[in-house]
Amino acid sequence: MLSPSFTPNPDAAFPGPLEARSPGPPPAVMLLLASLLLHCLPLAMADYDICKSWVTTDEGPSWEFYACQPKAMSMKDYVTVKVEPTGITCGDPPERFCTHENPYLCSDECDASNPDLAHPPRLMFDKEDEGLATYWQSVTWSRYPSPLEANITLSWNKSIELTDDIVVTFEYGRPTIMMLEKSLDNGRTWHPYQYYAEDCMEAFNMPPRRVRDLSSTSANRVVCTEEYSRWAGSKKEKHVRFEVRDRFAIFAGPDLRNLDNLYTRLESAKGLKEFFTATDLRMKLLRPALGGTYVQRENLYKYFYAISNIEVTGRCKCNLHANLCSYKEGGLQCECEHNTTGQDCGKCKKNFRTRSWRAGSYLPLPNGSPNACAAAGSAFGTTTTVAAPIVAAPAKISKLFQLKPKSPQVVPIEVFKDCECYGHSNRCSYIDFLNVVTCVSCKHNTRGQHCQHCRLGYYRNGSAELDDENVCIECNCNQIGSINDRCNETGHCECREGAAGPKCDDCLPSHYWRQGCFPNVCDDESLLCQNGGTCYQNQRCLCPSGYQGVLCDQPLCQGDEGQACDPASHAGPHLAVLLGSGLLLWLAGCLGY
Length: 593
Ligand SMILES: *[C@@H]1O[C@H](CO)[C@@H](O)[C@H](O)[C@H]1NC(C)=O
Ligand SMILES: *[C@@H]1O[C@H](CO)[C@@H](O)[C@H](O)[C@H]1NC(C)=O
Ligand SMILES: *[C@@H]1O[C@H](CO)[C@@H](O)[C@H](O)[C@H]1NC(C)=O
Ligand SMILES: *[C@@H]1O[C@H](CO)[C@@H](O)[C@H](O)[C@H]1NC(C)=O
Ligand SMILES: *[C@@H]1O[C@H](CO)[C@@H](O)[C@H](O)[C@H]1NC(C)=O
Ligand SMILES: [Ca+2]
Prior knowledge:
By secondary structure, the chain is of the alpha+beta class. 14% of the residues lie in helices and 25% in strands. The protein starts with 9 loop residues before the first helix and ends with a helix. The chain binds 2-acetamido-2-deoxy-beta-D-glucopyranose (5 copies) and calcium ion. Calcium ion (CA) binds at residues 123, 126, 128, 134-135, 308-309. It comes from Phascolarctos cinereus. Residues 1-46 form the signal peptide.
């Protein structure tokens, strides 16, 4: 369920400026490691991205159904926002404000009627040019001591499941008191989700806790945290998080590799799945940043809220009955399979209500159970996947699977008269309850009732007839550059970020290839090496003596201790740290060496 959002933390995976600066092999090795890390990770994960497939087994071909879910995506693109109370957004009337860093230079202005100086709510969700923050801003605290409060409500009109941290970016300092609430019923009822304060005891009468200290029994506890409210300079600490990853890590391990355990827990631990589900989120901003001191009545123009981004990563909740979710008629809607229907695939389709509706299940691993709806007199809706042995699954769940309905009856008939398989098979079966004849064991990478389709990972050869042995061509997607090994009808693979070309084995001009595509460190247009440095293969600047830094923009070692000037002294320790962490061993294991 977590695939797209669960690339490792880029901060951890990519070398920082310090490493990038030292010449020679170490940065290259680290980039290689980083790219292997990115590439390797998905191998360990179940992904639940297919709802059904037409498969041929010894008993003959049939549909197999699987638990499935849509990909995680950036949910801010589908949100509607409400900011309360009315009049809380700055600029009407125009107002001057100052900042904590520069409290007596109050030259900044907010003016709602001037597009360049307005700060409307939509700027919390827009796409920003690099380095140019656009933000919603509140009025200043001119009415002190009555509180400066604002509610920001995000609504999807659809249940969504969080798959990564909610990250709220505050410009000019984070609130000293705020809370996050959620609703599961489109805003009719609300529940606290997390409290944030400089002093939890004072603000909410709650002891402070850190989410990463929670345990498997308290993973869905609502806590008050002091981690995101203290003053550390408005430029330095901008983010307020709701930690989804840390909570997942309790079950899946610190680098979220043991997702199987997470999926098992999500099915078995009461209320856990629901904890990450919401239709709406509401931020209550209760006291603005104070610059690390008390409110100074004589200058209230430096107290306000400003939010430049709210990142919510999640997926539509479709009860494991859909792998697609689309935006239609102003709302998100699951594209339900398994003969279910409804916005969340939360009920059986008409005429498919022989059994009562059930959500799909992540278990048994790795394909889960579709729990499809069934029509009267049909055995079809009841097929389950070939059950993998349940490892360490709770007793209750294993029991459920003993009740697994029987597979549909398939009567094989050799060399059936109406057998039409375009020469890719000479065996057919008659499927009793469907009253169809279907090919068995399609060859030449074909599949389908008449072997008329290409297997996953292959595409149709446009210049070959259906009965040609060459009718299906392997997609040959670059393993590192592409998202999966499938392609569309023209053989184009789906590329990871930065990759390009039909097989995803090229990089966009802004990226360079090194076991994957990485953003250019330098180039000839926008990322110029400074002070006469030259760009080496878009990967680093070769600096003239006397300069250092990623873009050779810093004089070398000025004011440094003598020993830090020797670049070689950086290389050793960094590699040693990586090696010491067992990363290499793990990488070797994951690559199967
Ligand atoms: C925020 O919402 C809560 C709950 O609806 C309400 O009681 C409170 O007055 C609102 N605050 C503001 C500033 O609108
Ligand atoms: C919410 O979604 C439902 C179902 O898609 C739709 O009928 C309804 O009009 C939507 N409501 C709003 C306020 O958009
Ligand atoms: C749903 O019903 C259709 C018949 O209308 C059938 O072809 C299909 O296989 C069913 N799907 C499932 C998952 O049972
Ligand atoms: C497509 O089919 C034609 C005709 O059989 C064959 O000559 C050609 O090699 C095939 N293309 C590929 C890429 O296999
Ligand atoms: C296949 O994908 C490529 C690249 O995304 C696109 O240009 C092309 O139109 C697609 N072809 C079809 C038939 O969808
Ligand atoms: Ca913005």
